[in-house]
Design a protein that fits this description.
By secondary structure, the protein is mainly α. Helices cover 77% and strands 0% of the residues.
Length: 118
């Protein structure tokens, strides 16, 4: 199993376990998150780019991987994703650089593996 499959499988399995707890607050939060990234006044591609930049500034590696996968699915190319990386780095400062490295590595894997694991 490669890095993308591992991440997606773990995320999916744990989300199922969390949702099985039937906690109303958690369910509502997950629903809010899902609806936030749905098509609206902004298209999904734009929302995922915003989510990626915010995740990098907040330094959440799982969030970065998730949004990179969604950006890939949305059709971003390498130049576009690196512009998002540059915005996040400018906003977040040098503390973002370790996450930038991991994000660049994960993007390379997404490009190499193609759509089979997203």
């Amino acid at each position: 199993m490669n890095l993308i499959e591992e991440f997606n499988t773990y995320r999916s399995e744990m989300n199922e376990k969390i949702m099985a707890s039937d906690n109303k607050v958690i369910k509502r939060f997950f629903n809010l998150d899902t609806n936030t990234y749905a098509e609206g006044a902004l298209d999904i591609k734009s929302k995922e780019m915003i989510g990626l930049a915010c995740s990098m500034v907040l330094r959440c590696d799982d969030c970065i991987k998730y949004h990179l996968g969604k950006c890939y699915e949305s059709g971003l190319d390498k130049k576009e994703v690196f512009e998002v990386f540059s915005i996040a780095t400018i906003i977040g400062g040098s503390i973002v650089i370790p996450h930038l490295r991991r994000a660049a590595e994960y993007w390379e894997i997404l490009e190499k593996e193609g759509n089979k694991n997203v």
